[in-house]
């Protein structure tokens, strides 16, 4: 099977919101942007010289509107099935995010009340319902979907045989990608410590590159150093009773 190539597909700004095109024997798309972005993803794939109608799967990394908002439209345009984790199924079938958002810092507190974060999109039921590690060889790429809960209960990442980790919102860069090489939290996490545990687990698998849903490509060694500092910060917040967690949505990594 051809080695998998990872191509970012910017959907908002230069790198504020990204989908990703994974190229192997057949193309796979990861994430679909905000509502109404299905056609934009379709066109971005075509700009890479790839027939969008050949997309074999659309992987949704989690149930936030800027990642699954265009999935139903893109699936309708391409005929490709959608794969997503059961932990966020209610978001997908309702077309709405789970609220309230739990901000990770100032940016999250600033944007959480804004209308674009509370819109409804076209709902869908994933044709491939992820519960554990899911190989993608049958869909044309040498990669697997891996549950990485914490950001949401149903968050997943995609790890390729070439060492690329397409991480959704497992990790981000500051100001929604304006500082592209610096590891940072996305604006929200349902369970920050669980997300950090998922990130550490994925780093232990030895990826060579991390690709964030918001921002550019990240160096794993730099992320590892950030994880150590972030663990200490979160433990201090937890000790003070200031760490907010959505307990009722928690799922294990192999749910």
UniProtKB/TrEMBL annotation:
Listed InterPro entries: Metallo-B-lactamas (IPR001279), NDM-1-like (IPR050855), RibonucZ/Hydroxyglut_hydro (IPR036866)
Domain Metallo-beta-lactamase: 16-214
Domain of life: Bacteria
Name of the protein in its database record: Metallo-beta-lactamase domain-containing protein
């Amino acid at each position: 099977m051809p080695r998998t190539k990872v191509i970012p597909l910017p959907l908002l700004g230069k790198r504020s919101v990204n989908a990703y095109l994974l190229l192997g024997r057949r193309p796979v798309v990861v994430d679909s942007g905000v509502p109404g972005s299905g056609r934009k993803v379709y066109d971005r794939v075509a700009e890479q010289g790839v027939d969008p109608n050949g997309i074999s799967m659309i992987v949704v990394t989690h149930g936030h509107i800027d990642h699954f908002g265009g999935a139903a439209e893109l699936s309708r345009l391409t005929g490709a099935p959608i794969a997503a984790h059961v932990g966020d199924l209610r978001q997908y079938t309702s077309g709405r995010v789970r609220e309230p958002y739990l901000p990770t810092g100032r940016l999250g507190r600033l944007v959480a009340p804004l209308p674009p974060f509370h819109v409804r999109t076209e709902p869908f039921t994933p044709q491939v319902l992820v519960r554990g590690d899911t190989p993608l060889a049958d869909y044309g790429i040498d990669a697997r979907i891996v549950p990485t809960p914490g950001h949401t209960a149903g968050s997943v990442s995609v790890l390729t045989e070439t060492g690329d980790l397409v991480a959704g919102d497992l990790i981000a860069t500051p100001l929604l990608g304006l500082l592209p090489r610096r590891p940072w939290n996305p604006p929200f996490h349902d369970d920050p410590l669980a997300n950090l545990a998922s990130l550490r687990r994925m780093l232990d698998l030895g990826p060579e590159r991390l690709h964030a849903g918001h921002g550019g490509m990240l160096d794993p060694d730099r992320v590892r150093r950030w994880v150590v500092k972030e663990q200490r910060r979160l433990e201090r917040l937890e000790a003070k009773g200031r760490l907010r967690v959505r307990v009722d949505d928690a799922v294990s990594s192999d749910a």
